[in-house]
Specification:
5-stranded parallel sheet, about 500 residues, about 10% strand, single chain, alpha/beta, 2 domains, Rossmann fold, signal, G-D-S-L family lipolytic protein
Length: about 500
């Protein structure tokens, strides 16, 4: 034992010597990134737009969705480079419903229910506590107003509570407008923004599309007071409105970013329900093809074709035929077919859908239901043709595409004229639909309804993870335009689907 203790001093010297020989020099990690705004000034950021700006998701506006809006994500990035606070006109709860005078005027947000045969979106239970008549005090940086069309952002009284009751004003804006006569842009510009984003105009086309083309293309009509809700805005009205919006937001020299509009055919609302979802047994298929059902219709068409009243091509397009098994196409009303009722009242404008037709998302719970509960054979989409509102036909899609092209040309031109960062949201959403975006963990965010992570359960508005992808597109454009070095956001930090 004494020999062991005597050895310790030498052992200590040995360890010290080894330490001197082998310990590497102290190292430090990489210097922290210093974020800069470049030539932009993010100190007072104001976002202008519609539901896509507000954070609308799952068919409603609610607190968590507002927190996950792309402008709020941008504001968090801006705060790294001199950005200030970002005030949001929060809804009163996470339900999303709204009331006015005790009457519910907007439904709750959707959640996925697993109680039926297959998972389906249903409104979350509960009574929303957001009362439109309760005016929020102060000013707000997120000026996104769900439902607003381009020209409505400039409309006096669009935030009037009295107007909401009369159906002439917007309930979302009524909650935080500065007065009964205020305009959205007036309230936005009054804040003296140093930086702004504008993503507006989607509703000028979208409402026509989601309504199955039941509205009217108002090209050539420059009087919005004559428009119905589902009509497409005249391109000149859109251009004038957007120019006025940008004039107001840049009046004090603010920089900003503007995004173009995505094609509606790239959203799950039009890509989820197939045109041919009908299964039939042999007996039912035979009955539908018989003279008691569509056989008589087909014979009447053939007779008119022989008289050269319709072409062979239209005869083929309109002939209805069912087969035993899966994959039968639904029967639809198509107003663009030749009107034959003057020759035979039974020859209405109907045909079977093709892969070129886009069934709206809400048709998934309507196809196969009974038109008349007392008539078991009155099956919607089979014995009873689907009305125009359930499908966007190729002719209607062409109308949408023409308007979209004109709108996006305007947006690109104004981005150049006002020297703004330009975000190609059209290309972004097309890529999300076609291929998705791979994330750091190897997962892919895409446009698959309910499971893709890119879109919410209404099939129109992004989910939080989708909004993060939009935010990154804005940040990329802003960095490129103003030489900032904002880091962007991680989409995986946000949910792809609210589960309760």
């Amino acid at each position: 034992m004494k020999k062991f203790y005597a050895f310790l001093p030498f052992l200590g010297l040995f360890l010290i010597a080894c330490e001197d020989d082998t310990t590497p020099p102290e190292t430090t990690g990489p210097d922290p990134v210093e974020y800069t705004s470049g030539s932009a000034d993010f100190s007072n950021y104001v976002a202008v737009g519609n539901s896509l700006t507000a954070g609308f998701s799952d068919n409603a506006l609610f607190e968590d969705g507002q927190k996950a809006s792309f402008p709020n994500m941008l504001a968090a990035n801006f705060a790294l480079a001199g950005g200030g606070s970002f005030e949001i006109p929060f809804m009163a709860d996470n339900l999303g419903g709204m009331t006015l005078g005790g009457t519910q005027i907007a439904g709750n947000r959707l959640i996925l229910s697993f109680l039926g045969e297959s998972p389906s979106p249903v409104p979350v239970e509960g009574q929303g506590t957001t009362d439109v008549a309760v005016k929020l005090p102060g000013t707000y940086n997120n000026m996104g107003v769900p439902g607003a069309k381009s020209y409505e952002l400039l409309a006096p009284g669009y935030g009037s509570v009295t107007g909401v009751a009369m159906g002439t004003a917007n309930p979302y804006f009524a909650r935080f407008s500065s007065s009964e006569s205020a305009t959205v842009i007036g309230d936005a510009a009054a804040q003296g923004a140093t930086f702004f984003t504008v993503w507006a105009g989607a509703n000028d086309i979208l409402l026509y599309a989601t309504g199955g083309g039941t509205g009217v293309d108002r090209a050539g009509n420059v009087d919005p007071s004559t428009y119905n809700r589902n009509d497409i805005t005249d391109p000149n009205v859109f251009a004038g409105s957007l120019d006025a919006i940008l004039q107001a937001m840049t009046a004090n020299g603010a920089d900003g970013a503007i995004a173009n509009l995505p094609n509606v055919t790239d959203i799950p609302y039009f890509t989820t329900v197939p045109h041919n979802p009908i299964p039939l047994d042999a007996a039912t298929a035979a009955y539908l093809n018989s003279a008691e059902a569509y056989g008589a219709y087909n014979a009447g068409l053939a007779q008119l074709q022989q008289l050269s009243i319709i072409t062979e091509e239209e005869l083929e397009k309109r002939t209805i035929s069912f087969a035993a098994g899966e994959g039968n196409a639904v029967v639809i009303i198509d107003e663009d077919l030749t009107d034959l009722t003057g020759y035979n009242p039974a020859l209405i404008n109907m045909r079977q859908a093709t892969a070129d037709d886009l069934m709206v998302l809400t048709s998934r719970t309507f196809i196969g239901t009974l038109d008349n509960p007392d008539i078991p054979t009155s099956i919607n989409g089979v014995a009873v043709p689907l009305a125009d509102k359930w499908v966007l036909t190729p002719e209607e899609q062409a109308i949408v595409e023409t308007a979209l092209t004109a709108y996006n040309q305007t947006i690109a031109g104004l981005a150049t004229a006002y020297d703004l960062a330009f975000v190609d949201a059209n290309a972004l959403l097309a890529e999300l639909n076609a291929n998705g975006f791979q994330q750091a963990d190897g997962s892919v965010v895409d446009a698959t309804f309910a499971t893709g992570g890119g879109f919410s359960l209404d099939g129109v508005h992004p989910a939080p993870r989708g909004y993060a992808i939009v935010a990154n597109a804005f940040i990329e454009a802003i960095n490129a335009k103003y030489s900032s070095n904002l880091p962007g956001v991680n989409p995986l930090d946000y949910t792809g689907l609210y589960i309760d």
